[in-house]
From TrEMBL:
Alphabetized CDD domains for the sequence: F-box_FBXO32 (cd22103)
SUPFAM superfamilies per UniProt: F-box domain
Name of the protein in question: F-box only protein 32
Pathway noted in the entry: Protein modification; protein ubiquitination
GO biological process: protein ubiquitination
Intracellular or extracellular location(s): Cytoplasm; Nucleus
Organism: Cisticola juncidis
Subunit structure, as described in the record: Part of the SCF (SKP1-CUL1-F-box) E3 ubiquitin-protein ligase complex SCF(FBXO32) formed of CUL1, SKP1, RBX1 and FBXO32.
General function of this protein: Substrate recognition component of a SCF (SKP1-CUL1-F-box protein) E3 ubiquitin-protein ligase complex which mediates the ubiquitination and subsequent proteasomal degradation of target proteins. Probably recognizes and binds to phosphorylated target proteins during skeletal muscle atrophy. Recognizes TERF1.
Superkingdom: Eukaryota
Keyword Thylakoid: no
Gene Ontology terms: cellular component: cytoplasm; nucleus; SCF ubiquitin ligase complex
Main location: cytoplasm
Amino acid sequence: IHSFCKKDDHNKENLFNSINYDVAAKKRKKDLLNNKAKTQYFHQEKWIYVHKGSTKERHGYCTLGEAFNRLDFSSAILDSRRFNYVVRLLELIAKSQLTSLSGIAQKNYMNILEKVVQKVLEDQQNIRLIRELLQTLYTSLCTLVQRVGKSVLVGNINMWVHRMESILHWQQQLNNIQITRPAFKGTTFTDLPLCLQLNIMQRLSDGRDLVSLGQAAPDLQVLSEDRLLWKKLCQYHFTDRQIRKRLILSDKGQLDWKKMYFKLIRCYPRKEQYGDTLQLCRHCHILSWKGTDHPCTANNPETCSTSLSPQEFINLFRF
């Protein structure tokens, strides 16, 4: 009996050690996976239900971090119609909402940001837009890291220092981009008639792009100073009342629309335009990208959808 009990204890000890080894192995595997993960969070859905309270069917509520994790923003940045929308959303989160995200959402945020930077490095488009995003995020993190004693960031401080170093590295990569002239020798922009050149310039919604275009060639410099061009740009972004408050006269006694534009953007927000946006169904409270079908019970689902700007998307989760 003594030998049997001793053998039984030995088997129990081996079983207990085996369980410990399995748990430790699983934990090491999970930690390794978390450290090397460069993909978005597990959920990648085309729509989510936005609920702001507990019901018999649902417990808890939808947060900004949960919405950011579950909506497929990784695929959205590959769509040129949604790229600017996602970038603007990342910028707004970097300014004021970074600490409201969960640890997984913050990690997902950095993964998506890395994909955005890699896309810009590959196609060499929207460079200035991403530079401003990275600078905004770096400035916010500098402020938050100094307040780490108040536990405003999720995770180890060394991890955030490493992320800040990654941001500096991305900024350096963007600064080193050398845009080369294409080898194509066909019709160029300056070969078009002046009326077509002006028509194309009127499609630019950012005055800085207009200035950069004028610096590309001497002929374009003259066109980029066109008063009617800057007047339409001011009228597009700002109201008549805002314009009347910021009138600037030139030496010839005429309204200097170019100076007025740059003065107005320092005082008022510009009009935002996006090719595609997130939409909220007022009937079933489902959030999805424009054109995405969702299980709506309304008779006319198209009439129930409301387009959300990036700021309105964030405001949706302020309780």
